[in-house]
Predict the 3D structure of the following.
Amino acid sequence: MTVNRAQTHDWAAVIAAGGSGVRMGGPKQFLPLAGRPLLFHSVSLFLAMPEFSDVIVVTARENFAALEKEFGGKVKLAPAGATRLESVRNGFALARRNPVIAVHDGARPLVTAQLAREVCAAALKTGAAVAAVAVKDTIKSSADGLTVSATPERAKLWAAQTPQCYRREALEELLSRFPNAGDVSDESQLAEHAGMPVALVPSFYGNIKITTPEDLVLAEALMDTERKSAGVPAQRVGFGYDLHRMVEGRPLILGGVHIPHNKGLLGHSDGDVALHAVCDAALGAVAAGEIGVYFPPTNLTIMGISSKVIAEKTLEVLAGRGAELAQMDVTVIAEEPKLMPHYQAVRESLSEIFRLPLDCVSFKAKSAEGLGPIGKGEAMECHAVVTARIK
Ligand code: MG
């Protein structure tokens, strides 16, 4: 069977993140989950899937800046409406050229690429499809909220999740046919009203919606299990290297400590070769680039700054990825001055800057035996290895 390219690519994901989070005591989309805002998990998943050319996040305007900061121009942003349906309408307005549209709750961070693919494939066949799981509990209905009126037959009950996927023309028809549908809890209800078949795609129970604080604890535990089974190590190792020229007329700062010498390290910042190597190692441990990404040499505001600012930013990036430093081993290669008398002061400073116990900070120095530019005292270099824990 030949597959039309338009049917397997160019899909759009509309991620609804307009909820007020009343049951969480505030907007839940940005609560931290595994070190990242809740909403970012599903956005990242759809962005990484080659089938989706457009990822549209529908959210309150005050959240736009945070999404732009994290994802740049990769996501499209639409303002949340007063109801879920209005939000979906606003998102769909940016997806009019996509043949398939997947509507997903921003509060379902555990969705998988496989599930999204399966629901979209089903929608291509029927027009509309929803992810759902068979209901495990016996469900009671109550007309007055006090006494049971009926017990629907459990074998026929399914709990709807997202993604809910549509062929474009199907969603377009539903949204235009029911312009005043009010607050339906999902748009697949419109398909039922219209007599359009909606395919049920069996999902998994872990695809939970974060609604109450305990859901967040559960999601955290499920993600932890998933990470362990995927073999992502909880301990990471990073390596960093740096070199700076030694020049007269500059103070020598190493690991945040001023060391008396007739030369110092040349650089835009204070040239602290040790802090730079440690920061690069720390960023490397969580695959977050290197300090030049956060402090480009072209950025004149870093002129003359203390490298402690760079260290502070590094800790912030690690925390944003759910990681913390566990230990470091730092080796400076320098001909002069002799650094052994300063080992303890530098260790204490590194321990304070990186908030590590002293016995987790190693600092040492080697000479270059008079060889090369370092041996001639023209430069100083530093190698650092750190380990980081993923929390
Ligand atoms: Mg440097």
Notes: The mean pLDDT is 91. The first strand starts at residue 11 and ends at 17. DSSP finds 13 helices and 16 strands in the chain. The domain at 234-390 is CATH 3.30.1330.50 (60s Ribosomal Protein L30; Chain: A;).
